[in-house]
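Incident review: delayed structure delivery

Summary: a single-chain prediction request sat in the queue longer than the usual turnaround. Root cause was a stuck worker, restarted by the on-call engineer. No data loss occurred. The affected request and its eventual output are reproduced below so the record is complete for anyone auditing the incident later.

Affected input:
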Amino acid sequence: MTMSSPVAGYGAFMEKFTLPPDPSSQKLPLTGLTFAVKDIFDVKGHVTGFGNPDWARTHSVATSTAPAVLSVLKAGATCVGTTVMDEMAYSLVAKVGHLGSIDGENIHYGTPTNPRAADRVPGGSSSGSAVAVGANLVDFSLGTDTGGSVRVPASYCGILGFRPSHGIVSTSGVIPMAHSLDTVGWFAREPVILKQVGEILLQLQADTPRTLSQLIVAEDCFNLLNIPSHQLIEKLIGAVEKLYGSEKIRYTSLGNFVGAEVPSLKHFMDSNASKQEDNIPSLAALSINKCIVKIRYEFKNNHGEWVHAVKPNFGPLIAERVWKALKTTDENIDVCYSSKNELCSALSDLLGDFGILVMPTVPGPPPKLRTEPTTLEVFCEKAFCLLSVAGMSGFCQVSIPLGMHEGLPIAVSLVAKHGSDGFLLNFVEILHKNLKLS
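Output delivered after worker restart:
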């Protein structure tokens, strides 16, 4: 293992080092590729910092490496270091009111520079991992996605980001945030590499390619955009029609569907009536009253004792989120888990085995750095409505860059049934070739 100083310029790296591939890794799938890992993964001989210096100070070096990291090393890839992340991975929830700033800013270690828009946030909490890929510092990187921490920075940095089906990729050796939502995700610039990494992490076997049965466009979700929706829809639909024909495409109101098929949300929809003009009521109820409650409750159980004992120095927004989480009770927590089951069942029926749901990743391009948090509230609420669909259902989701709007990156997301990760990766690879040509 060799050590060097962090890379200057983009600020993506927390620590630079070299973990070479397995000595026997010649002509393996990932031979010749470099990668970085979020500072939430254990790497033997290094302290896993969790984005906070007090965490690093009070924890020992890791005695083993996380299985997800080991698997790509054994497949021939070379690790070049760990990346900056939001403190405690807590970027997406509990700002003034309800939600977080989805930013990637860290008061202790700085904010990695968005390689596509230097005056804009890179997205949290896997910000450094996304920037490392977007800035061509590595070929791919590993991150984690609980509430959107891979999908958001992928969208903001103009790269591909994959959140796998919940429970498919091992989270051993990864500091938990909220275990019922935590996933190990990854970033890449090209679909071929995204798929190659996925084949290793997902332990995919060679299988007969499956063709798309239907592409379902969530029309109401596109109405949440702060840019013209046709910029995201038309290019994608044109490529799918060329590949599969227009008969494969249908449109739906996802909010109405979820409201009808997830009965445990009805009470919470009524309690959010005042927010309906800016949101989709059923998805707002799903995100604010279900997903966020679960994150807070599980975060408290995982880290509350450490926070009370150490009283760590947090950035002001993170401090607010953490202490709010520590006040969470188990009230309505059983309903949160039942909502997940209901949503998973409903979306499975909607999509079938080889259907794909299309929706925006986030409501628009990345916000400016140091934007006043209160001005981001509507944007964040809309974003979490979109992000909570895959989070609460446990389905797999990929964010795909679709060019620029006024010089800023924009993206669309594809969601597939739990366990259909290989199918989704294949579809992205095929689709991307036609998106380039269209």
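Verification: Residues 198 and 425 are 8 Å apart (CA to CA).
Action items: add queue-age alerting; document worker restart procedure.
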